[in-house]
Amino acid sequence: MLHPEPLATTADALRAGQIDVSTYLGKLKARTDTVEPEVSALVPEEDRWNRLDEDAAVLAGTYRDPADRPSLYGVPIGIKDIIHVDGLPTQAGSTLPPDVLAGPEATVVRLLRDAGALVFGKTVTTEFAHFDPGPTRNPHDLDRTPGGSSSGSAAAVASGICPAALGTQTIGSVIRPAAFCGIVGFKPSFGRIPTDGVIPLSTSVDHVGFFTQDTAGASLLASILCDGWRQLPAPTGRPTLAVPDGPYLEQASPVALDAFESQLERLGKGGYELVRLSTLTDIEAINERHKRLVAADAALAHDEWYREYGDRYAEETGGLIETGKAVTIDTVSEARRSRHELRAGFLELMDQHDVDLWIAPAAPGPAPEGIETTGDPVMNLPWTHTGLPTITVPAGKTADDLPLGVQCAGRFGADEDVIRWSHGLADTLST
């Protein structure tokens, strides 16, 4: 079910005219026809390929000279189905009427279009980006989850039916599925990629992120989507990595922890300095504050829809909203304050110990069996709670040939550093 489809090299070839866009779409169609019936990464669309051909023809007429073509010329990109796209309905993995959920096209989609990208189509999401899963399967093992809530985006990129896809993360919905599917997932600093035009789950912590097959593709996409992106030179040295020892790390499974120690050993031999720091000793309280904040925000965001269509909500999502109704203003205020206090605490430790990145397992273990759940996002929660930029880098496989990933989080607003350091990390962890 896997196929290489690197974004950066594909984009270069399309822009230079080395690959014809229509020919490339034909290749993806053949790939999709083979893979999609088993992986189920895409929201069905009756006229997908005619639409893409028409969009490609318009693009070709607009940019006849390769020298004038924008950086994503002709690149088809999947869009998680909680993100509004003009001309395509938004269903959000739910059974609510699409016209009820409709809204103006998201800024992040407009940024992609302005860069010459084609909308490949909508990708499957859990209902309203919470925990009720759709039909998507992991391309590495069809009997396992691809993770969620950005299930379809991760599976589509991993299986090579599109070179990149947008996702969102409120706890672990980009970083975890990227690890489960053996690809790169990037979650920016909170607010660095616009979230307007995205159906909210929690406006306090919702992030828009994306998936690519390698870090070169992540670098290209981040430069287009992140506000105020700065092109920095390639690093001349290696970042110092901090390992968050203690109760947080102990949430991972023995399989993940054993693999993580091996990954750290590999990095140490590769010349990386590793600093083990005791932190997140109150992780259970942090987890609880984050979950209550998400529940309260979800209850507010879905209030009108839930009042009218509550019987159409999945049990998991309805339970979240009902929980959120009972969360007090004081609890919400405490959770929002916690985000900034924890972020400041991380940065203080980084300054004290001259650390550049935090490193941890990207998930509690490999993708679990079955598609009834999407796995536990607990390893991603503190980095989302604080809004720190975070990237998943593939980091080998288990004895059962299932992908594993590490996540690296940097200073708030230093997304450029996280991306440029990820290249070396990926190279070291792939050897």
Automatic annotation (TrEMBL):
Coiled coil regions in record: none
Segments for region (Disordered): 130-153
Molecular function GO labels: transferase activity
Domain of life (superkingdom): Archaea
Keywords, ordered alphabetically: Transferase
Keyword ATP-binding annotated: no
A Pfam family matched in the record: Amidase
The Amidase domain, residue ranges: 31-418
Keyword Nucleotide-binding on entry: no
InterPro entries: Amidase, Amidase_dom, AS_sf
Protein name: Asp-tRNAAsn/Glu-tRNAGln amidotransferase A subunit
Protein source organism: Halorubrum vacuolatum (Natronobacterium vacuolatum)
